[in-house]
Amino acid sequence: MAVATDTYTEKTDEQKAITEMVRQFADNEIIPVAEEYDHEDKFPEPIVEQMKELGLFGVTIPEEHGGMGLDLTTYAMIVEELSRGWISISGVVNTHFIGSYLLMKFGTDEQKEYFLPKMATGEIRAAFSLSEPEVGSDVQGIKSTAKQVDGEWEISGQKMWVTNGLLSGVVFVLVKTDPKADPPYKGMTCFICEKEPGVDEMPGLRIPPKIKKMGYKGVESTELVFDGFKVPEERVLGGPDGIGQGFVQMMDALEVGRVNVAARGVGVAQRAMELALRYSQERKAFGKPIAQHQAITFKLAEMGTRLEAARLLTLKAARMKDAGERSDLEAGMAKLFASEAAKANAEEALRIHGGYGYSKEYEIERIYRDAPLLLIGEGTSEIQKMVIGKKLLERNRV
Ligand SMILES: Cc1cc2nc3c(=O)[nH]c(=O)nc-3n(C[C@H](O)[C@H](O)[C@H](O)COP(=O)(O)OP(=O)(O)OC[C@H]3O[C@@H](n4cnc5c(N)ncnc54)[C@H](O)[C@@H]3O)c2cc1C
To answer: Does ligand 1 come within 6 angstroms of the Cβ of 215?
Structure first.
């Protein structure tokens, strides 16, 4: 769909070339097979292998560590294109991006040199783990702990909803190292846990079978059951100074994660729009294409406006972060609006497809099941509103 350009949506020549390449990749390699993988809930290994060749696991990793060294804005543009193809593909990259960010911003030199080159090629992929069976939004309430035993750390506790939990080679795990700390966030530490990808049982760690989900299939979400899992001292994120810093580190990463989820929302909203535009001009009712019935034209108008607004908010938040400006408020707004836009556009596109929208033969049926994830991950819409409201008041004190 053609869209207007302005200072936020304008692309450099490099950004144009990369997004065009990823769009073609989505059109040729992802969209034609997404339904098949979704219906079988199968990991899209051949697509992931091609993504490695394209360098898509190292987009934001500095060139000195083997990555492309691109900024958050370019990354957001790439994620939009991948999600337009299939949200689960961006899910394989999403947690990897958060892990790379944590290392780049907080890792010791040794941690960066050890992990980033392998992560840039996709040789190992990263996951992150905050959520637990009883705790999601209220991160300070997590119960998992790590204690020091004979110069090592031992992690115990149950983690939930770890995307890429089984196939990742490294997981950034947030636990309490001082459960009595007041406020609790000061007693939280992030550990870089290495594991064998695809292995579900190892000393101190068990990974139960993947959680069955309504959408966002193909990419696995798992529990991680830690019971005295040993982590060397040098795998505290940021080294000894990182002890007690885990909450702050993770919240920082989730802020860029919000731009990432917003970009995923734009991709989903875009694809729903494309499908609605096509179907509404092909399908006839009462003697004319349904697009010419005003009720449908208005739906298209609202979908297009929502899509454009979501893209602008997302790119604005990304560009502000790249420029070193404070962007917590903007990232929250982008995440809230773009994820709701994805959900709304998916539903409107499904309605426009009439009965066929309810059939598994049509792409929109999958998109309708995939979109709601975006309302939940990296902070629910309710939590975004809490963040946005708080930041607005902070910036506008009387
Ligand atoms: C497919 C999938 C993949 C995921 N991947 C990961 C991952 O890789 N790593 C990870 O750590 N987590 C992951 N998550 C977990 C996700 O981050 C949490 O589900 C999310 O943060 C919400 O937490 P919760 O499910 O415990 O809901 P709760 O926190 O229990 O919230 C339930 C409801 O109450 C609302 N609510 C809670 N507190 C408030 C409040 N103060 N005011 C108003 N409303 C409130 C919420 O908005 C929500 O509507 C994933 C989740 C899913 C579904």
So the answer is: no
